[in-house]
Amino acid sequence: MKNLHFLLAALCVLPGAIAIAQPKTAVQKADSVLRLMTLEEKIGQLHQLSSDFATGPITPDGDKQVQVRRGEIGSMLNLMGAARTRQLQTLAMQSRLKIPLLFGQDIIHGFRTTFPIPLAEAASWDLQAIEQTARIAAIEASAAGIHWIFAPMVDIGRDPRWGRVMEGAGEDPFLGSKIAVARVKGLQGKGFGNTDAVLACLKHFAAYGAAVGGRDYNSVDMSERMLWETYLPPFKAAIEAGAATVMNSFNDLNGIPATANALLQQDILKGKWKFSGFVVSDWGSVSEQTIHGYAKDTMQAAMQAILAGNDMDMEGYAYHKHLATLVKMGAVPMARVDDAVRRILIKKFELGLFEDPYKFSNEQREKEQYDNPLHKQIAREMATKSIVLLKNDTVQSRPILPLQRHQKIALIGPLVKSQKDNLGFWSFDFDDDSVRLVSLYKGMQNKLGSSTSMLYAKGCNLNDTDTSGFAEAMAVAMQADVVVMQVGEARDMTGEAKSKSNIQLPGMQEALIKAIHRTGKPMVVLISAGRPLIFNWTADYVPAIMYTWWLGMEAGNAMADVLFGDYNPSGKLPMSFPRTEGQIPIYYNYYNTGRPAQNDDQRFYVSAYIDLPNSPKFPFGYGLSYARFAYGEMQLSKQQLKGNEILQVTVAVTNKSNVAGEEVAQLYIRDLVGSVVRPVKELKHFRKIMLQPGETKELKFVVSTNDLSFYNSQLQYTWEAGEFDIMIGGNSRDVQTKRIYWNK
Ligand code: GLC
Questions:
Q1: How far apart are the CA of 520 and the centre of ligand 1, in A?
Q2: Residue 358 lies in a domain
Q3: How far from the centroid of its chain's Cα atoms is residue 575's Cα?
Q4: Most-buried pick from 202, 268, 349, 510 (CB within 10 A)?
């Protein structure tokens, strides 16, 4: 107890303490503790280890419990639960200075309540809903002892061969920035100190999504201008929104591993952006510099990482083993170690862990948050909003969808009865999942009543060459009025270390679709996957298609809600869908080039493939509704503008159908001529609106010079006078355009 008094006195929190200036801020408190710490204790704060399970290649380690008791570990990941975290925290309280542990966890799309994967949520374009699911994730995770969530992943994803596109918000910097901010706000809530507010962690810093060939962990090589224009904006926006921590990335950027990249961590993040939180490495990425060939040993790796601005070493032991020597030999200034430790201690003080190390380890609160029916309902709503309707042709004089309750339905496909595959990667298993998770089959039973006879056939497996189930599936289809198929990916086919060179529908699934198509029955195909897949035949021949991503624990109920029109689909694609892998990377905001193809038929002496149309199979921002929306002619407040004037863009959107529905009106801008070439269009505003049947809403967008701004060749963020096209529409392809002139 002597030590505790000593520490508390140092913090001037001991009742009746001698009248010393009361440190009021977390910074002052952190400095008070820092002054008491030995070098070894400081290094302990920079050392993070995984506990109960691994999310990366395990490094051989000593007895973690002993290390915690000695104050040699400052943070742990991959352990959860009020009791379990309390147990480890109790050990930390046996250390000399009783500095509390920080518990971090990958809660990427929900904890006990599994929401749609982040890429699916991005398809909702509903920022409030996205913030709400992050808020719920924070409430549930903090009730299970977690202080720090390794989310949001804000990597721009233009390459669907890269399995981690599922964790992000797609290809666009503007949409990605808005969603990053929404997720940070959701996670951090009303501010640290509240027991349901957790530290957010922006990852992976930076440009990880541009890995060559879409191959995970691969090199990234790009101009600094491209980095600023496309990959940094979501990080910058989320830092400005107060994100507490940043995780760097496995990739090397222009030859320097991100973990040891001073340009990224010192110059940009902590310098230009004045980031006051702390940076954690990715799993073992400090030591992996030796494998990159950027350090001859882990001592050099430790030195390079900390000097470049990496504060905490996740699962690497490099700091643990070498920092003390590096400081003693003068290779690493103590000031840099102190800066890293201070950044971490400040967050522990802000979370209130010094006052009460066990405040997040409350078993009563954990029980209260364990099965919150409201959370489940919100998961279902989020899932319905994430579904993208890609096709809904008219067959036998009516659109296939929505289904009608009197129809005899055949459910066919390898995912129809699957529960876990709808959860997607980065999801948690619970013992009662068999009763909690709603498959499509279960969702349809819930919708129609379990007495309703529904026909079913699996048809084929997810990923083999067996077609022996086709005959039965076709026979089942023949007995139905309409066939609903659910195909796609198993839960582990997309995610970290799941890059694929072939992103066609796996196995014999498209062959099964063709077989069912041959029966001539009206059919709907639901595609559940973690990434854009290629399904050209299905897209061309199947009359109704929905992209259902991985929708989480309420997937089946949500799919049934949309299939029967109890929710009118409103999702819009956050990524372009390629026709072939050969088209990748493919994105909507490309540069025009000197020889653009004017249409999909032009081939010669233009920038096009001679064997494939240039356009994506489905464009960014695309999604249909059961309603039909008509856009009036957009009106501009001016055609000639000057300086800091603003442009008002007005457009009337009308629901021409007899069903209510939501539309995402999108506003794009093109800078016709710049001091560097500019994209043919860039998303700058969007509005998601509900329209009743026959209703018209007049939307007003305000365009300012900030919307015209970009990073010029000197990396200055500026705008240039000239001609601009303003474009508005329900996706990035089908837009109306008007030209304006904006002078300085
Ligand atoms: C993984 C991932 C990262 C995750 C971390 C901890 O390798 O790259 O996103 O947060 O390790 O699990």
A1: 47
A2: yes
A3: 12
A4: 202
CA of 462 to the centre of ligand 1 (A): 27
Q: Are residues 41 and 58 in the same domain?
A: yes
Whether this prediction's pTM lies above 0.90 is answered by: yes
Question: Which residue in the block uniquely carries the two structure tokens 């189930």?
Answer: 469
Q: Of ligand 1's atoms, which has the minimum distance to the CA of residue 204?
A: 9
Report pLDDT digits (tens) over 400-441.
999 999 999 999 999 999 999 999 999 999 999 999 999 999
Write down the pLDDT at residue 55: 87
Closest ligand 1 atom, residue 203 Cα: 9
- Confidence at residue 51, expressed as pLDDT on a 0 to 100 scale: 86
Distance of CA 105 to the CA centre of its chain: 15
Q: Is 150 in the pocket of ligand 1 (CB under 6 A)?
A: yes
In a domain, 22, yes or no: yes
Domain span holding position 6: 1-104+333-370
What is the DSSP secondary-structure string of 383-435?
Answer: HHHH-EEEEE-EETTEES-S--TTS-EEEESTTTT-SGGGG-SS----TTHHH
> Considering only CA atoms, which residue is closest to atom 3 of ligand 1?
282
Which atom of ligand 1 is nearest the CA belonging to 167? 9
Q: What residues in the chain have per-residue pLDDT under 50?
A: 1-18
pLDDT digits (tens, 9 = 90+) for 248-298: 999 999 999 999 999 999 999 999 999 999 999 999 999 999 999 999 999
Domain presence at residue 623: no
**Of the residues 159, 196, 282, 421, which is catalytic?**
282
Same-domain status, 515 and 385: yes
313 is a catalytic site residue: no
